[in-house]
Write a structure and sequence with these properties.
By secondary structure, the protein is of the alpha/beta class. Among the domains are: 1-64 and 415-436, no CATH class; 139-334, no CATH class. It is 45% helix and 19% strand. The protein is built from 15 helices and 10 strands. Strands 1, 2, 3, 4 and 10 form a 5-stranded mixed β-sheet that branches. The protein has a 5-stranded mixed β-sheet with strand order 7-6-5-8-9. α5 packs across α13 (350-369), α7 (223-231) runs antiparallel to α8 and α8 (238-261) runs antiparallel to α9 (265-290). It starts with a strand and ends with a strand.
Length: 436
């Protein structure tokens, strides 16, 4: 099926011009379960009175400008590109399975074709990704974690175990993934967060120890990681494990109490200081007294050795109600990455891993903000070419998921095609819009 959109020149007195032809630009568009061709028609007009044109400085031949395309001279439209990204990273469908759906709809596409479209759309979205990173790192409270990402090592001809980082801001609710040649080293963390100032919540991984001496950064601990280490000792030393878990459960009960009462940040901090503060002191004392009673190389010995140095970091959450008791929200945001990893098995090279970081960052931020990722991608991919022109005064932050909804309602100036019925796929629809 073909949907035709006619773009007429703006502010043109058609009575003084005669149509001498038209230019067609066809793009492949897609909605869930529906594939169609969008035919953008731009009529060409010539002025009837050439003498008047010369005297009044009017244009002899007029054609409306072609709207900027997501991929220069490319076949896919914004909706097609959005669907490819969604299928790959939201629904975890690799390219070799994606090509089957268009084939069922009568269009044959190869994996190489999809891959050829995928790379330039990632480059189109990269400036928005960089703007997202700036905004997250400008907040004063972030949660950081990392997970594995297999990437093909072409020298050794096998997938290497590499790492990708996640940085999540609590306010605004945005996140981004960061890939730095697959490294999990302390240098990556230091370089990534060198401009950050505020609360940094993380687990006990030694790479974060570099921030202990920074006066503008306060490390916050994660009680969930402490609990996992102690819970792993239940079979080895059930008595001590249950004692430790009881302290942790009591600390979480304070959070449940604050949630049920729907306390403000200030009220939550006051409740924590009154109830959780003494519990945390007692837990620290228990760790200190129990450690000499167990073998250092036992699971319990290792769990206590992990937990005890993190207690000072845990204390920060007592005095600021915004800070979570654990890092679980950052870990939850990693789950789509884990599913993507399982379904695509590996990234073909480091550039593919960087592209994965770009798209997963944007889709993850949509989820954090409660934004429909399909609508957001479709809209943003179509608008980004206008934002990235050298003379554009538009700000990329307006397209980030936390601002997109309100901005879209008040500033949507691109032509909107209405009345495009999709009931009869054999029908050719025409809709006239005017270039702006």
């Amino acid at each position: 099926p073909v949907v035709t959109v006619v773009i007429e020149p703006e502010d043109l007195d058609l009575g003084k011009y005669v149509k001498i032809g038209e230019e067609h630009t066809r793009t492949l568009e897609m909605k869930p379960g529906y594939l169609y061709v969008k035919d953008t028609v731009r009529p060409t007009y010539a002025i009837k009175d050439e003498t008047e044109a010369v005297e009044n400085g009017k244009r002899m031949v007029v054609t409306a400008p072609l709207p900027l395309m997501p991929i220069y001279k490319g076949m896919p439209g914004a909706s097609m590109l959005a669907e490819i990204l969604l299928q790959k990273y939201e629904y975890h469908v690799p390219f070799y399975r994606q090509v089957k759906q268009p084939e069922h709809l009568g269009v044959k596409l190869s994996r190489n074709t999809l891959n050829g479209w995928f790379k330039p759309v990632c480059e189109l979205l990269r400036p928005l990704y960089l703007e997202l990173k700036k905004k997250v790192l400008s907040s004063d409270y972030i949660q950081v974690d990392e997970t594995t990402l297999p990437v093909i090592d072409h020298d050794r001809h096998k997938a290497a175990k590499e790492y990708i980082w996640i940085v999540r801001a609590a306010v605004p609710r945005l996140l981004f993934f960061h890939y730095a040649n697959g490294s999990r080293s302390q240098k990556v963390a230091v370089d990534l967060l060198k401009t950050f100032k505020g609360y940094l919540q993380c687990d006990g991984y030694s790479a974060y120890d570099a921030f202990e001496n920074r006066k503008d950064v306060r490390l916050c601990g994660c009680l969930a990681h402490i609990r996992r280490h102690i819970e792993s000792c239940r079979e080895e030393n059930r008595e001590y494990a249950m004692q430790g878990l009881k302290f942790i459960q009591d600390l979480y009960n304070v959070e449940y109490m604050a949630d049920e009462r729907q306390l403000s940040y200030e009220e939550r901090a006051a409740l924590r200081q009154r109830l959780a503060g003494p519990l945390l002191d007692a837990f620290e004392l228990w760790l200190q007294n129990t450690y000499p009673k167990v073998l250092k190389r036992s699971l319990m010995g290792k769990a206590i050795a992990y937990a005890y140095p993190l207690i000072p970091r845990m204390r920060h959450y007592l005095y600021d109600g915004r800070i979570f008791i654990d890092n679980n929200r950052a870990e939850n945001a990693l789950r789509p990455m884990v599913l993507t990893r399982k379904n695509m098995l590996f990234c073909g090279n480091q550039q593919a891993a960087e592209n994965t970081a770009v798209i997963c960052s944007l889709l993850g931020s949509c989820k954090e903000c409660g934004v429909n990722p399909r609508e957001w991608l479709n809209d943003v991919i179509s608008k980004l070419p206008y934002y990235l022109t050298p003379k554009s005064e538009k700000k990329l932050t307006e397209l980030l998921p936390d601002r997109w909804g309100g901005y879209r309602q008040s500033h949507d100036t691109l032509p909107t095609v209405t009345g495009m019925s999709m009931d009869n796929p054999r029908t050719v629809h025409r809709q006239t819009v005017h270039a702006t």
